[in-house]
Amino acid sequence: MDRERYFLKNEQYYIREFEFTDGTIVEDAVVDYGSMGTPKYDENGNMINAILFCHSFFDDYSSIHDFDQIFGRDKLFNQEDYFIISITSLGFSHSFSPSVSGLKNDFPHYEMEDLVNFQRQFLNERFPEIKKIKGILGYSFGGTIALGWAIHYPDDMEFVIHFASSHINSGFKYVFSKLSTNILETSIQQNQHDVYHKSMSQGLILLSQLYYLLSFPINYIYSLSPEEIDVSLENFREESLFRDIFDMKRANEFMLSLDLSSQLDQIKCRLLVIGVENNNLSVPIYDSIPIHEAVDGSEYILLDASDGYKEANSLYKIENEIREFVEKK
Known about the structure:
It is a single chain. The protein is of the alpha/beta class. It has two domains: 2-167 and 260-327, Alpha/Beta hydrolase fold, catalytic domain (Rossmann fold), CATH 3.40.50; 172-254. 37% of the residues lie in helices and 19% in strands. It has helices at residues 2-7, 98-101, 112-126, 141-152, 171-190, 198-212, 218-223, 226-240, 245-256, 288-294, 319-327; strands at residues 9-19, 25-37, 50-54, 83-87, 133-139, 157-163, 270-277, 299-304.
């Protein structure tokens, strides 16, 4: 995928004025994003091949690189046939967030509609030629945003691919969000300094290592020796130092109240739900299958990703099924 990194162009765009659902209005809200591919237009000048990628909880726009099984040259979503846009979500570092805005704990609490409206307003302003998105692919946290798009703006896209995600924060996900929030709040309360203190970094380290427990397939975790697990935990420790405690706190607070169950019947676009076998965080019977059963006409695929540590690396197993869904008229 190294050669594809060169083609993903990173840019920033500033939304002059953005209004949250609670009425808070902010100015110059930065949007961090990347794009690649070839725009195609109809006879009216409208772009007809835009694909939107929504990233997972601990990532940003650049994590689309992990999906080199389906994004890239000679792949399903290749640069000749599609124009691909990956956006760092509202609330996450580099886009408008507690850390970037400097608001820290005073950053507005956001809802699903805010996450979607942030991306939608950006697309309307930066790419006004996109009247309808070809498709949205959301992974993990990004999968819930993709559902939010389909719920609040059901006519804005042709299809949604919901991968290793959910519609509700329950079970292990709720426990993770609750414990994470407690860790972060304690770290913030203990810090009485005007500058970023090491107590905050320690909170992020604990959060990242807690996430470790849920982020890998069960079979993969049990295949590791204690020494290998120690190395993985240390890697998570290092990655945590690049995150911001206030960004993570707001994101966890959002997750605590996530429940789209009563809104799933508003989805009208074509929907492909991809569940992942042996996943600790997104369990098909509780997360993927209920969405499939609630949305008329949706399709469901169960992916066996037990032979690797990243679900995206196993997408080649169902590439033909995904292609059939995408190209269906």
